[in-house]
Write a structure and sequence with these properties.
This protein is an all-alpha fold and 318 residues long. The protein is built from 15 helices and no strands. It has one domain. This is EamA family transporter.
C-alpha cells in the first residue's frame, strides 16, 4: 500500500474529528430546542446531499442503496438521529469538552464488537490507545462536570448510539457507496426526528425563529453534517473500524479549545489531563500496524482472494 493511500483516510478522519469538535459552539449559540436543532441539522445535510446526488445522476452515476440493504441503512439513520438528539441535549447541560470526551468512550465499544463481528485483530499499540482513550474519558466524566446524572445518561446514550451508527455504517459500506449511504441515512434521520419535533420540540417557536438561531443550525447541517459526514464515511470504508473510532477521540481536543475561546469554558486540571490521554490514544492509533485495510474473516479467507472484492462493486460508480 502506498504511503499516500495509507495517510489520506487517517488524516482525513483526524481532520473531520477536529472539525466536528467545534460543532458544540454552534449548538450553544442557538436558543432553539435540542430536537429542533437536530431536525434542522439532519434536514439541511440531507438537502445538500440530495442536490449533490441529483447532479451525479444527471452525469450518469446511479449509485443508490439497493432494496436488500435498505433496512440496515435505515437502522443506522435512526441511530444517527438518536445520537444527535441526545448529543445536543447533553450540550445544553454540560460544557462542550466534557460532553465530547464522554461520547468518545464509543471507540472502546466499537473495538469490542469489531473483534467479534469482523475478526479485527487489535495490536498492543491499538490496545494501549483504547486504554488511554477510556481512562481519559472517565477522568472527565464526573456528575458534577456533566450536568448531573441526567447529563451523564444523555452522554452515555449519545456514546452508545454513535458506536452503533459507526458499526452499522461500516457493514453497509461494504456494498453501498458512501455518498448513497450518507444521503439515505440523513433522509431517514430527518424523517425520524419529525415526531420528536412535534412532541418534544417547539414547532411554533421554530417557525418564528430568528436568523441568529437558525443560521448556526443550518451551518451544522450543511458543513458539519452533510459534507463532513460524507467525508468521514468515505474514509471509514478504507480504515479498520477500531482505528476510525479511536481517531474520533481527537474531537474533544478542538472542542475544549473552541469552548475556551468562544464560550469561556475553562477546564480543570483533571479534565485537561483526561484530554491529554485521549490525544495520546489518537496519536498511537495513527501509527498502529493494522490502521488501514480490512482483515478478512476466516470464512472470507477460505473462499479465496476474490471473495472480498464482491462486496466492493459499488466503487466503480462511487
Amino acid at each position: 500500500m502506498k504511503t499516500t493511500d495509507r495517510l489520506v483516510p487517517l488524516l482525513g478522519t483526524a481532520a473531520v474529528a477536529l472539525f466536528w469538535g467545534t460543532s458544540g459552539v454552534l449548538v450553544k449559540r442557538s436558543s432553539l430546542a435540542a430536537t429542533d436543532i437536530a431536525f434542522i441539522r439532519t434536514s439541511a445535510g440531507a438537502a445538500v446531499l440530495l442536490a449533490w446526488s441529483t447532479i451525479h445522476r444527471c452525469r450518469g452515476d446511479r449509485a443508490s442503496v439497493a432494496a436488500g440493504h435498505r433496512m440496515p441503512a435505515m437502522l443506522t439513520g435512526l441511530l444517527l438521529a438518536a445520537h444527535w438528539l441526545t448529543f445536543t441535549a447533553a450540550l445544553r447541560a454540560a460544557p462542550i469538552g466534557t460532553v465530547l470526551t464522554g461520547v468518545y468512550l464509543a471507540p472502546v465499544m466499537i473495538a469490542v464488537f469489531a473483534r467479534r463481528v469482523w475478526q479485527e485483530r487489535v495490536s498492543g499499540r491499538t490496545g494501549l490507545a483504547l486504554l488511554l482513550t477510556a481512562v481519559g474519558s472517565l477522568l472527565v466524566l464526573r456528575p458534577a462536570a456533566a450536568g448531573g446524572w441526567s447529563g451523564l445518561l444523555l452522554i452515555g446514550t449519545a456514546a452508545v448510539t454513535y458506536a452503533g451508527f459507526i458499526l452499522g455504517s461500516k457493514r453497509s459500506l461494504r456494498v453501498v457507496a458512501p455518498r448513497a449511504l450518507t444521503t439515505f441515512q440523513l433522509v431517514v434521520a430527518a424523517i425520524g426526528l419529525v415526531p420528536m419535533v412535534i412532541v418534544l420540540g417547539q414547532p411554533a417557536t421554530l417557525v418564528r425563529a430568528s436568523a441568529a438561531d437558525l443560521l448556526p443550525a443550518i451551518l451544522l447541517g450543511v458543513a458539519y453534517t452533510g459534507i463532513a459526514l460524507l467525508a468521514y464515511l468515505s474514509c471509514l470504508h478504507r480504515l479498520t473500524v477500531t482505528t476510525s473510532g479511536i481517531l474520533l477521540s481527537l474531537e474533544p481536543i478542538s472542542s475544549f479549545v473552541a469552548g475556551w475561546l468562544a464560550l469561556d469554558e475553562r477546564p480543570g486540571v483533571i479534565v485537561v489531563f483526561g484530554v491529554i490521554l485521549a490525544l495520546c490514544g489518537g496519536s498511537l492509533a495513527l501509527t498502529a500496524p493494522e490502521a488501514v485495510g480490512e482483515r478478512q474473516s476466516p470464512e472470507a479467507s477460505r473462499r479465496g482472494p476474490g471473495a472480498a472484492s464482491k462486496g466492493r462493486q459499488w466503487q466503480a460508480g462511487s
